[in-house]
Amino acid sequence: MTDDLELELGADRSLLLVDDDEPFLKRLARAMEKRGFLPETADTVAMGKAIAQARPPAYAVIDL
Q1: What is the pTM of this model?
Q2: Dist CA 22 CA 59 (whole Å)
Q3: How far apart are CA 32 and CA 59, in angstroms?
Q4: CB atoms within 10 A of CB 36
Q5: For the residues of 15-47, what is the DSSP string, one character each?
Q6: Contact yes or no for 16/59 (Cβ under 8 A)
Q7: Which residue has the higher pLDDT, 1 or 20?
Q8: Closest CA to 18 of 57, 56, 61
Q9: Which residues is 59 bridged to in the sheet?
């Protein structure tokens, strides 16, 4: 299964999720983790920017 995920998502499965709706953010993170991503969450733009600068993700979902 891991080999299939690497083919579909690439070797870097890091995912940054930014949203101020905490319950939604947690549900989305769990759902994306089940799909093979390695999610990291932020509930503010400032926090999301800090994470992105420190550990640039391969993927991101940002609520504007």
Answers
A1: 0.86
A2: 19
A3: 11
A4: 15
A5: EEEE-S-HHHHHHHHHHHHHTT-EEEEESSHHH
A6: yes
A7: 20
A8: 61
A9: 15
